[in-house]
């Protein structure tokens, strides 16, 4: 059985990696006024962070069911099955779009998978699925492995400016004002598919240290982990953090990724995250 792997743009997997592993990507969009851009195709992360310096933060939109149907129908010409891995259904209807389209398309078996997370931590599932698909593994076997991974996936992130969260309905105006005055850096994580506060921490430095403490708790078992540092237009800081963590945690393999246009619209520039999974 030949299995295709699909994900959406919020996994932020570089194009060269997608091409190498034959990963098919469906984009979400950012909307500046009357202009709509498909992220990772018509607007890259660097361009997005430049745009928002001079414009209001955009709104975002998920792919239409029709876009999924077209993609799945094209894949049906060459594949028997598709595993479609998407950002958490608690923050976007993208996963549901894949479910609906999968029920409409004939000639290919569609297996939607809710990552219950986003960004390159979602990408961990995609890369694993793609490698297994290339090795000829059956979709059912791949899904068992993805569910196994879910048990050890963790991700925490910190926003630099509470205004973005407040605008997106994540914090009340009062909380945002008080938080800004106190320089609170809320640590956030996904719980039951939604973004919720994990802890409130006073400074950026302490927030980042707290995330490292959480990783160390898991990594002290000595088992091999892969981890990703995710930044919102803070590449130099992310690379510096990576070098520090590599020296401290030799059993963890680190990489650097980014919050692209869609997720960056909700978190804002300066945000930083760290996610990991047991290898």
What structural keywords apply?
279 residues; Rossmann fold; Hypothetical Protein Tm841, Chain: A,domain 3; 2 domains; 6-stranded mixed beta sheet; 4-stranded parallel beta sheet; 11 helices; 27% strand; DegV_domain_contain; lipid-binding; DegV_C; DegV family protein with EDD domain; DegV
Distance between the termini: 26 Å
Q: Which blocks of ≥5 consecutive residues have pLDDT under 50?
A: none
Rg, Cα atoms, Å: 19 Å
Q: What value does the average pLDDT take?
A: 92
Could you give the count of β-strands? Answer: 13
CATH class category of the largest domain: Alpha Beta
Total individual domains: 2
Find the structural class using helix and strand composition: alpha/beta
Short description:
Keywords: Lipid-binding. The chain is of the alpha/beta class.
